[in-house]
Amino acid sequence: MSVIVRTICALFLLATQSMGAREGASGVNISENLFSKKDEALPIDTIFKLPAPIPAFPPSGGDFGTGFFDLGGLQVTQISVFNKVWSTRDGGLDNIGATIFEPQNIPKEFYMLGSYSQPNNKALFGWVLVAKDMSSNTTNPTLKQPSDYTLVWNTESLDINQEGHAYVWLPTAPNGYKAVGHVVTTTSDKPSLDKIRCVREDLTDQSEQYSLIWSNNDLYVYDVRPSNRGIEASGVRVGTFVAQTVETTTNLSISCLKNINANKTSSMPNLQQIDEIMKIYSPLLVLHPNDKFYPSSVNWFFSNGALLYTKGQESTPVTIEPNGTNLPQDGENDGAYWIDLPTDDENKDRVSIGDLNSARSYVHVKPVYGGTFTDLALWVFYPYNGASSAKILFFKNVKLGKIGEHVGDWEHVTLRVSNFNVELWQMYFSQHNKGTWLDASLLEFKVGNKPIVYSTLHGHASYPHVGLTLLGKKGIGIKDDTEQSDFVFNLVAYELISAEYLGSAIIEPPWLNFKRQWGPTIDYDLDKELKRVRHLLLGKLKSLLDKIIKALPKEILGEEGPTGPKEKNNWIGDEV
């Protein structure tokens, strides 16, 4: 090696060491952070805003959209403007780290309840609640300073790409009070006791882990939410996180809030405001271009020959009246009644196709998080669910005979809207017997603030983006396939079918209280259907296919007709 070359190499080595390159087992390693992470913009560097401004809402006489709610002597408001406290570009989702923030622009006489954190792999989009004592109880006010702090964890010893060091503190709550969030500092000095407030115990509820934000060996940072959720639940999500040095799902160190106001629904939208929400956020449902089974309205289905069957009287089915006025009400799904297509082949085929022109979304509006958010579940009815297909290794589209076919198909998506500022925060996509919540920052929008929903071929599960989802493993499974299409159903064509908090203002249609199946039980030989495709596989792959298919829920296999929306667990509870 020449003197010139050795000199250049030595200078380069010194330069990289002075810039902070790490030394590994194989010698000096030029840190990828220097050239790919350190100066690279991250998704969180962008603040997410909805595509279009939210118009002014009509007044309601209540608290909806006013920005402030009284939880029972404790007034809260939602803050989504933050100061960054600490950040790392290592670990976490997509291995690009996470960031911790404090709320800023806190109104006068309001106090911070905890810090906010989120992964760096998505645009900044979050909130925390801040609170003000409105009670007249001077002995036991709704808020008190902590008596001390406990250091949960710090990042001093971590060999990670980070901006300074983080010290995560848990407030020590006075007797009768609980902490609902952490304070994070960049020095080892304890925070001021005036930095945060603890909440009187009767205004708190049990919390649980929701989603992992970041972890590193002995620290786990989780978003948290109330353990008890649903229409009647009082737990209020604070927007804070929990930091744990052991991975446990019980006895979390922080609580959530609880709405003990006697009028919990004063923060909920009225009929006119529900209509405005639908005009702004009603999704656009993109149907698969190769799907021949479309949605229809329930009344179109009834008026075009759908039949009600009674056990023991199968030879004499009866036509169904508009709105299902002659359907059996209440009871339980005991197999005594079911709905089916017309008996003659011509009308059976015609009705199974559906009628997109008549289609409606059937909307159920309910309070969540103690009335601080509103869920709008938008249900769509399909007269028929088509047969499934599979991907088996390099065989990309294997027909599965009758597997997946059934009469009557109820699908839904749910919009979660903040009652503080009427912003869309999350959307739920139902996928057979489960589903996925997605932040608004991760949705596709096409027209204003209307999110896109992609419906799968034949199965009609809902997804936020186009592509193939395989319900299986090792390259074998049922296909959930979505594509771009010109067949689009705007769910703004809606009928409000239920909003329990509005009482007699909403009259539920009789069909909603039909507790039985919207399709007959189909009796087919699953093994016979699987035999059609087993010849494509060798050895253990045949049994793997059998296990994957037979483990699928009956609503995917198509063995049973589905029950209606009101029979689903999410009708009164949270989405799974």
TrEMBL record:
Pfam family, one: Vps62
InterPro entries named among the record's database cross-references: Vps62
Signal peptide annotation: 1-20
Keyword Signal: yes
The entry's keywords: Signal
Coiled coil feature spans: none
Protein's name in the database: Vacuolar protein sorting-associated protein 62
Origin species: Lupinus luteus
